[in-house]
Amino acid sequence: MTTYSADQIRNIAIIAHVDHGKTTLVDELLKQSGTFRENEQVSERMMDSMDLERERGITISAKNTAVIYKNHKINIVDTPGHADFGGEVERILSMVDGACLLVDAAEGPLPQTRFVLKKALEQGLKVFVVINKVDRKDARAAEVLDEIFGLFVDLEASDEQCDFPCLYAVARDGKAFKNLADWETTNDLSALFDTILEVVPPPPPPKSDKVQMLIASLSYSEYLGRMAVGRVRSGTLRVGMRAARIEVDEDGNPVEKPMRVQALFTYEGLAQIKADEVGCGDIAVLAGMDDFMLGDSIVEVPDAKVAPEDRWSPIDLALPRLKIDEPTLEIEWHVNNSPMAGLEGKHVTSRKLRDRLVKETLTNVALRFRETDSPDRFTLAGRGELQMAILAEQLRREGFEFSLSQPQILYKEINGEKHEPMELAVLDIPEFSQGTITQIFQQRKGLLQNIENRGNGRVRLEILIPARGLIGLRSRFLTETKGEGLLNTISAEYEPFKGDLPQRSVGALVADRAGESNAYALETLQERGVLFIGIQTKVYEGMIIGENARAGDLNVNPCKAKQLTNFRTVNKDDAITLTPPKLVSIETGLEWLNEDELLEVTPTNIRARKKQLTKHQRGG
Questions:
Q1: Which residues form the domain of 111?
Q2: CATH number for 226
Q3: Of 222, 371, 376, 553, whose Cβ has the fewest other Cβ atoms within 10 Å?
């Protein structure tokens, strides 16, 4: 493995909103840098290694890669673009010296772009801009460039930061150019590679000759356990060397934990390559302890050969800790105890569910795991519904069965007053839905901050709303905007409690017995509300089969069969017409739940149910 000096290393992050093309761009950088053999088969969106990332078209967890260009090593970090995973973004920025701001030529800069760019500018990173998808029919590259400049000014960037280099690109075709006129004659990304080497500075000179590394991310290996990821700020990390991890106790005081570097890796292409040493400025992955924590420092300790007068305190070498976003909501994960438990999944016990959730927190530091007073129930706190839904979908595909409770907001008490987390929602909606959408957000204690006419019959609204007000809002938002609305959120500060919000106004249709649904029964029940099930669906007592059109729950019999008699009737041969059922997903299910309900998730089905299954227990 080639070792590169600090002057030959460039560390950059790619900042972009969801679906602006950052993962596609990284794919092309990898291909054109010679990372793959000519005959090697590679998939599209290689950085999106999870199935869910490929299906949803979003990056969920930040991943590192490295390309070699003109004898320089360029470490690239593909950062998440969704607000629920924004906690990862801030940590990644601590590992880089520059950033590529990638913006869609039609949509322009969007909320998450603003959020991450603000953090990058505050850290003094050198930022350059790439306007992607200039081949779109609705591309407006010149206007978008003006919007980006306005965004820099609005974020109080320095004069030097506002004088950013700008490139244009069609990432899908693997080409970038400095002038739009060069579109037809350009066939590669060499302009982008050269801009990275020119604009992004090498890692800053070390302030010490001792090893210093800040843990900015976590990885996990089945063989080596929890692994720390970070940039080596000074010194050279070597396999087998004695070191110390500096953590903090409950009072915020630094604590020294001795360790030894058991294994060391660095990045080359998409792979982690085993290394004997990693030098200053490069990004390292190391193993040596099971309790690495984000924000801890890995520092060198003096060995026995060091003279007493030359010895140093490892705690003095600790780097400033990183701030971690606090969770804003929590969900209880229950072991599945429905009558159908164990029929559809492989992993059904509390031990397996607990171990899997704990394992997730080893790498996803935005999550907080907590035991409850019941061995069959666990609490997981995180940043948003999407984050929880993604994790639930992952476990479901791994063969787990479990039930989820209604999301609960985490409040804080500040100066004796109840405070709640706020979110800044940025809406891009058609003009025809502006009045309805504004009213919906006002009902949920939303406060309009800004309004902007975007042209082409569209309006952009910025609304400050309590985080709990967003629960159950997305599906209604899409309905009212006829699927044309865009809703993006970023976390804001805690503010005093805004008061009670309107709850779900309709009840549930609850099965009063076990059996199999049939068309005769469902035809009658569909007049009562919206059904979640179709014919020949197995049901059990307490399972929610639909949404009642009125307030209050209604116990119904979806298995009622038509009585067979010898009497002929006029409507004997009438065809039964059923409306297609409303399918429940994890996200829509979490939004719909009330406090006395659960969402049962198995590898093959998603069902809503009551916590208490029998009518007697529910008092119905």
A1: 6-199
A2: 2.40.30.10
A3: 222
